[in-house]
């Protein structure tokens, strides 16, 4: 069996490596020359050492890179589906392009699986018609279905191997073919959805639920401040109830899934009101973090602030939709590109950023020492392991001020306070 993976971003690369390292001949296709060049040099852009080694093993084995789509028994579509803010809808142009690429090499008996996160109805309403234009009937001579990826960056290999999979096929033959495809790759269960649209809906429902749960925790944090309550202590006590499981609050929601996926459920009826409010709560948390800092230092005029951690969560390299990066952007310019001033921003301050995991060359990343040198305050934007054991004495000796804002709960607040820091937390 030969598998062609269309799209070698984070998920596509993980999927391609997983199949290749389990004995399948894999063709990895991407339209981005830079991606292919890095991979051909054995340098995947990932921050997990074990995952990087896993990809390198695949490249040295069964994973072949291609600049053109190739015929294969199975085509896996793992392309991006960004949210179009202007039009208020998912941008399916990559899915459509991938569909046309697959259609150009499709043969009778082949199987096509969409893994990209998409609005319900995309597999049957968008992808299937494109594939059928080549003269091969979907569900007759070509199997088609939807199987969402659910791996979490930072724990990629473990979740690839153990997560349950959901399969939604256009007919029984498609379901059977896709089940057979994934069964050897996971110790988790394979769950069959009624159809591809149900499987698409389930993926969005999972991420929307988590987004709402985080918004609830952040709402409690805002309320707790007004009452002088330690919200994390209160949540810990509340979770002693057997039917309560409240998440911890933070500076917002980031990554390529949670901030975006709930919008894919919008159907124009207003039924997503709860989801919309949850997104609004999470979206305003970075500004709240800056206001916490402002409350601590009195004014940001002329102040220098070091933001440590600008990836969207701890121990990953991805900065997409990162709350920590948004905090930094509110405080000043952190990119190598010209940026329009943010209305309502804090243009009176300057900001330095440090992150041991981030790899985005457009960001003005500096060393830890350079970031905190003469800084009046530090904000922790991501809970990297490297930050948990930082020495408050060493950091304080380089700073001009003694203020720390830790919305991600990465440091020992009492320890830092004992060394004279004014520590603010969510």
UniProtKB/TrEMBL annotation:
Kindly state which keywords UniProt assigns to this record, in alphabetical order. Answer: NAD, Oxidoreductase
Q: Which domain of life is it from?
A: Archaea
Q: Where is the UDP-glucose/GDP-mannose dehydrogenase C-terminal domain?
A: 306-413
Short name of any one Pfam family annotated for the protein: UDPG_MGDP_dh
Q: What is its EC number?
A: 1.1.1.336
> Under which main EC class is this enzyme filed?
oxidoreductase
Catalysed transformations (reactions):
UDP-N-acetyl-alpha-D-mannosamine + 2 NAD(+) + H2O = UDP-N-acetyl-alpha-D-mannosaminouronate + 2 NADH + 3 H(+)
What NCBIfam families does its record include? NDP-sugDHase (TIGR03026)
Annotated family: Belongs to the UDP-glucose/GDP-mannose dehydrogenase family.
Q: What is this protein called?
A: UDP-N-acetyl-D-mannosamine dehydrogenase
């Amino acid at each position: 069996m030969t598998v062609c993976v269309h799209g070698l971003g984070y998920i596509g690369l993980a999927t391609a490596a997983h199949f290749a390292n389990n004995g399948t001949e894999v063709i990895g296709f991407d339209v981005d020359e830079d991606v292919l060049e890095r991979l051909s040099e054995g340098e995947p852009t990932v921050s997990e050492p074990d995952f990087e080694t896993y990809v390198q093993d695949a490249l040295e084995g069964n994973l072949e890179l291609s600049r053109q789509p190739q015929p294969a028994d199975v085509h896996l579509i793992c392309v991006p589906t960004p949210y179009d803010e202007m039009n208020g809808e998912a941008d399916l142009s990559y899915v459509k392009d991938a569909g046309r690429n697959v259609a150009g090499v499709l043969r009778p008996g082949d199987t096509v699986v969409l893994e990209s996160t998409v609005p319900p109805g995309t597999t049957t309403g968008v992808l299937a018609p494109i594939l059928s234009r080549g003269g091969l009937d979907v569900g007759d001579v070509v199997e088609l279905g939807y199987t969402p990826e659910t791996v979490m960056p930072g724990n990629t290999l473990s979740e690839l191997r153990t997560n349950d999979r959901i399969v939604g096929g256009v007919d029984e033959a498609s379901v059977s073919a896709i089940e057979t495809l994934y069964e050897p790759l996971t110790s988790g269960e394979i769950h069959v959805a009624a159809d591809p649209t149900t499987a698409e809906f389930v993926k969005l429902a999972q991420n929307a639920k988590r987004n709402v749960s985080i918004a609830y925790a952040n709402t409690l944090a805002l309320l707790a401040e007004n009452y002088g309550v330690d919200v994390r202590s209160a949540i810990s006590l509340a979770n002693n109830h057997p039917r309560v499981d409240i998440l911890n609050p933070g500076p917002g929601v980031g990554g390529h899934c949670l901030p975006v996926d709930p919008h894919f459920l919008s159907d124009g009826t207003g039924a997503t009101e709860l989801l919309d409010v949850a997104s609004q709560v999470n979206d305003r948390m970075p500004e709240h973090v800056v206001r916490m800092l402002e409350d601590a230092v009195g004014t940001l005029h002329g102040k220098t602030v070091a933001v440590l951690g600008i990836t969207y969560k701890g121990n990953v390299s991805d900065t997409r939709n990162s709350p920590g990066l948004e905090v930094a952007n509110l405080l000043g310019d952190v990119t190598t590109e010209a940026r329009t001033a943010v209305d309502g921003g804090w243009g009176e301050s300057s900001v330095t950023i440090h992150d041991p995991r981030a790899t985005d060359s457009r960001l003005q990343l500096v060393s830890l020492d350079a970031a905190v040198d003469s800084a009046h305050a530090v904000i922790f934007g991501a809970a990297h392991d490297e930050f948990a054991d930082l020495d408050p004495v060493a950091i304080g000796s380089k700073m001009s001020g003694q203020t720390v804002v830790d919305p991600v709960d990465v440091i020992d607040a009492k320890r830092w306070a004992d060394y004279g820091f004014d520590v603010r937390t969510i």
